Amino acid sequence: MARILVTGAAGQLGKATIRHLLETLRIAPSDIIAASRDSSKLAHFKEQGIETRIADFDDEAGLEKAFAGVDRLLVISTDELAVPGKRLVQHKAAVSAAVKAGVGHVVYTSMPNPDKSLVTFAPDHLGTEEAVKASGIPYTILRNSWYHDNYLMAMPHHLQTGTWYTAMGSGKIANISRDDCARAAAAALASPPAGNQVLTLTGSKSLTAEEIGALAATASGKSLDVVQVTDEQLGQGLAGAGLPDFVVKMLVSADANVRAGNFDLVTDHFRSLTGVEPQSLEDYFVAHRAALAAG
Predict the structure, then answer these.
(1) Which Pfam families did the record assign (predicted)?
(2) Residue 165 has pLDDT above 80, yes or no
């Protein structure tokens, strides 16, 4: 079996990807390498017989060493969002290191329509995709749609107050769960699709804010009014809640991107990779109704 390395293994997507490699696809622990910039967070992988390595995206030489002997590499986008452009520099370093280390196949987690997306971090993904394509390494690019999980950050508060202020307008979005994206990444690592592939992972249905709000209200047993506001009004509200400026800009841009139709796409790429249907947002909300109702 090929040796598989997962970067960001201490994060939620990385952990879930390794779990699917082990449990869903029955990949032997000895064929998996868990990598993170903080090796102390990988102790539980060692206990499972998985090799661990340090992979600091600010250290290209260190990345080359970490990627040595790796056949298939999952590059999970970093969480460096506060400084514009820093994440792209990190990703390019990872791609360069993969080339130098002789990695056989790269899987990269991107986002839908990065070439026209209004989301603030879209240029990071577009630039990384271009770097991967220019590297000469066979690749699978997975464009993960907006996670179901993202709603758990603010939806409980919206349900508690009874109002969700959004700038999505009449736009639609086909969300998918983080766990499903991890399952797809594991499948692409275990058995890479033929040829170079760019796959967009979405749910099976595209929904408006009103439809999303109705699902959350039903699952939580609470009432919710969806109120459409302007980008400026949304930004003022988020800033007033004390969120950092870069987070405010990111969330406002995400709503604007939905309104522009750039998240309104449904594909069967997840099912083609995994052989199963993606979890619906309705089922996700039901499974997390306690968190939604907690406020």
Answers:
(1) NmrA (PF05368)
(2) yes
